[in-house]
Amino acid sequence: MEQLIHLLAYHDFANLKYLEVLQVNEVHKTKYLMSHLINAHTIWNNRILNKDVIIGTFDEHSVDELINRHQINMEHTSELVNKKSLNELITYRNLSGLVFTNSVYDIIYHIINHATYHRAQVAQLWSSNQIKVPSTDYIAFRRTL
Predict the structure, then answer these.
(1) What residue numbers bound the domain in which 78 lies?
(2) Which of 64, 105, 112, 131 fits a 20 to 30 Å CA distance from 19?
(3) pLDDT by residue (tens digit) across 83-113?
(4) DSSP per-residue string spanning 62-101
(5) Who's near 91: CB < 8 A, 6+ residues apart?
(6) 3-class SS of residue 102
(7) Which long-range contacts (CB under 8 A, 24 or more apart) does 118-124 make?
(8) Which pTM value belongs to this model?
(9) The domain that contains 50 carries what CATH number?
């Protein structure tokens, strides 16, 4: 569990760094991609909690709303890590209606990995527009602790 808590702290650190840059450097599709990764986090939290999904995967939000949604996601995920067994199996339907079962641990790990993938897409867009990409290497994050 300790490793997952460290990864969630890194996830929080990296997303906040990107949201800071997004506040002043919104390039085509960057807000869309950041909205998607934060929406997906919300959807996965709701699946773990067996709540209805009330947000679209690709709904786009203002940067202020993204920061707020990210903070709520982190609070909910932290509560889940502390209150649920990470081995607990969660059965859910994906957006195509197919039924799957995964552990809480695997779902939370997926949230982190999915965000890393989309942050890389945002980084590529910023780089191609001469916008400085924030350093979000995991090892750099660990050095701040």
Answers:
(1) 2-143
(2) 105
(3) 999 999 999 999 899 999 999 999 999 999 9
(4) -HHHHHHHHHHHHHHHHHHHHHS-TT-EEEEE-TTS-EEE
(5) 99, 100, 101
(6) strand
(7) 118/33, 118/34, 118/36, 118/37, 119/14, 119/15, 119/18, 119/37, 121/33, 122/18, 122/22, 122/30, 122/33, 122/34
(8) 0.95
(9) 1.20.120.450
